[in-house]
Write a structure and sequence with these properties.
The protein is an alpha/beta fold. The chain contains 15 helices and 13 strands. The longest helix has 22 residues. The chain is globular.
């Protein structure tokens, strides 16, 4: 029985918030040595839990997140806490003097901040491996520990294990969607402008977004309503056409992933949705751009860490991350500006192609990857990283919001993950339609 199952029943808390929080904090102690949790913020959590409990007793709860437990990726500032960005270079950094905007919003809504979670160093890998703090095994692990996915590894693993209701991460090329898939939970990456990134240490100033993890879509939806401070406009239509991009994005999907995805498409069709295979011209043009100039995330990461790479401290960076930074393209300011301008043109072109329709494809090409294989084989790690991020990176470059939803068999075993996306800026349309789609995406005897 998981921690969540012991302390919840049918989605309703069965014990007081303070008692549940104390139990979660105690349970987190066992996860620190795995690297899933880097810091436990016990005093902060217990104070917030007591306040939430008091509000509940007076019938003055702040909303659906009041009293819910939250974990924060250790790249997001919290007052009084060191933000390590998963790097040994920052273990002794000065504590943050101000909360990140997302922290302020979630805590003002009653969120109980339990602690901070591990990640790939500088958030620059989709595998979730970290030699400085440790690498937590995926929640899908059975006899052999599996890769957790990254870079938001700790948030995904701990939410999947039931240690928190909500996990907050960041997504640049797939760093929320990918670990959500590899841990069998729901993950949401918004369009880049939807959530305020103030107080979040950037990897890519253009692509970075704050993202969310949960076991329940309802929790993600509640978090979105808090983190999105702009007025939300509901779409005019609920059911619309879904463009299946699985055959045009490039990755070779594993048979298990393909079977789960095709079964999900069949259920959506049976539920009355129109699904058709599609090929987007903007994706082809994007591929040409990245082939000529390189991935934008690597270009911007290299620009950010150029001075560090040239210093004596570079030897302390995870060798896999250091190699990726060193091999990243170096563009002149003029070429960089032209790249960004071309990307904006492609985003607009993709928006025109897609309209208000949804996009779908498997979140990742494969689910289960033995952790020991990739801990000491840099070449294998680099190759798998590129493969796992191949589809999600396209979505990031075209600024598509994306919702990763686990696909399970009748016994509850995770067989795959479907990524529902929409055109840049159409986050509300994605979330409204995804909510309608969820009954078709889950196995008939299961719920998300």
């Amino acid at each position: 029985m998981t921690f969540f199952e012991e302390h919840h029943s049918a989605g309703t808390t069965t014990v007081p918030v303070t008692e549940r929080t104390a139990a979660a904090l105690h349970a987190l102690e066992g996860w620190q040595e795995t690297g899933a949790c880097t810091t436990i913020t016990a005093e902060r959590a217990m104070m917030q839990a007591a306040q939430a409990e008091d509000r509940a007793s007076r019938g003055q709860a702040l909303g659906p997140l009041d009293g819910m437990s939250v974990l924060w990726k250790d790249i997001i500032d919290q007052t009084g806490e060191i933000t390590t960005c998963g790097s040994a270079l920052h273990k002794s950094a000065q504590p943050a003097t101000q909360d990140a905007a997302c922290v302020s919003l979630i805590e003002a809504a009653g969120g109980v901040s339990l602690g901070r979670t591990g990640l790939s160093e500088f958030a620059f890998s989709g595998l979730g491996i970290n030699p400085h703090f440790g690498t937590p095994p995926s929640a899908l692990s059975e006899t052999v520990p599996l890769l957790p996915g990254g870079s938001s590894s700790g948030s995904a693993v701990l939410v999947a294990a039931g240690l928190a209701d909500l996990g907050i991460g960041t997504d640049t090329s797939g760093s929320v969607r990918l670990p959500a898939a590899l841990n069998g939970i729901v993950g949401f990456k918004p369009s880049a402008s939807r959530y305020d990134r103030t107080g979040v240490h950037e990897l890519s100033r253009t692509l970075d977004t704050v993202g969310t993890f949960a076991r329940s879509f309802d929790v993600l939806r509640a978090a979105d309503r808090i983190l999105n401070t702009r007025p939300a406009t509901s779409p005019d239509t609920v059911k619309t056409e879904i463009l299946d991009l699985s055959e045009s994005l490039g990755p070779v999907w594993d048979p298990e992933v393909t079977a789960a995805y095709q079964a999900a498409l069949s259920r959506m069709t049976a539920a009355g949705w129109t699904v058709r295979a599609a090929h987007l011209a903007a994706v082809d043009e994007l591929r040409a751009l990245t082939a000529a100039e390189g991935p934008l995330v690597a270009i911007e990461a290299r620009r950010k860490y150029a001075d560090l790479l040239a210093s004596d401290e570079a030897s302390r960076i995870d060798p896999v991350i250091r190699t990726r930074l060193q091999q990243a393209p170096v563009l002149s300011d003029a070429d960089y500006a032209a790249y960004l301008q071309k990307r904006e043109q492609l985003i607009a072109a993709a928006r025109a192609e897609i309209g208000d329709r949804l996009l779908s494809f498997p979140t990742v090409p494969s689910l289960r990857h033995p952790l020991p294989v990739y801990l000491n084989d840099q070449k294998a790690a680099q190759e798998l990283n590129a493969r796992l991020l191949a589809a999600t990176m396209i979505g990031s470059l075209l600024d598509w919001p994306g919702l990763a939803v686990p696909l399970r068999d009748a016994a509850g075993r995770v067989e795959g993950s479907i990524l529902l996306s929409a055109a840049s800026g159409n986050d509300e349309g994605l979330l409204v339609q995804a909510e309608q789609l969820l009954p078709a995406l889950t196995h008939p005897i299961l719920n998300i």
